[in-house]
Amino acid sequence: MIQCPVCRIVYISNTIFCPECGAYLLAEGEIDTNPMEAGQISWFREAAEAQAPDLGLPDARPLTIRLRIGQGDRARVLEVLLVKPIRLGRNDPAGHVFPEIDLTAGQGKEHSVSRLHACIFQRGETVEIQDLASTNGTLLNGERLAPYVSVPLKDGDQLQLGKLLIEVSFVSQPS
Q: Domain span at residue 97?
């Protein structure tokens, strides 16, 4: 057993940091690290960009999709350039949740849309959707999507987030 020198709580011997106060618990010399020079550190984005040509992915230009959210006179139409993944859901400032497409105004809560419900993104020349483990699920043309499994989207596809209907169309078509 090891006792925290700051707050005096006792933990099992292999505990490195005190969960209560964050103090370092191991004696001097028990853990040794070799610091890296700044030039040796590769950040995630840099590493991904460096590997992209090796993956054989085509250098695709961002596609634009049109989302018709809702039905009838109250439907809202958005055009989205897929330069990054687009999350759909409801804003929740208290929970610090801000999806790129906020469906709160389109009665998202009444239609059972989760705060982070689904994500649309471009992979190469393909546009895909992924359910983000939403409470009430995402349907693509009437078929429920498995959480975190990417599925290709096609022009004219119908999405259903909870009970909210969204029609997808491509403004700029894949080549």
A: 64-170
Indicate if the pLDDT at residue 49 is higher than 80: no
Q: Are 65 and 120 in contact (CB under 8 A)?
A: yes
Same domain, 161 and 113: yes
Task: Give the N- to C-terminal CA distance of the chain in Å, as an integer.
Answer: 64
Alpha-carbon distance values, 71 to 2, 42, 105, 138, 169 (Å):
63, 48, 14, 17, 15
Q: Where are the alpha helices (DSSP H) in the chain?
A: 44-51
Q: Let me know: does 83 contact 62? Beta carbons within 8 Å.
A: yes
Q: Residue 11: which pLDDT band, with cuts at 50, 70 and 90?
A: confident
Side chain identity, residue 36: M
Distance between CA atoms of residues 121 and 63, nearest Å? 10
- Residue 122, H or E segment: strand 118-123
φ and ψ at 124, to 5 degrees? 65, -125
Give the C-alpha separation, 94 to 98, whole Å: 10
State the pTM of this model.
Answer: 0.64
Regarding whether 68 and 28 lie in a shared domain, the answer is no
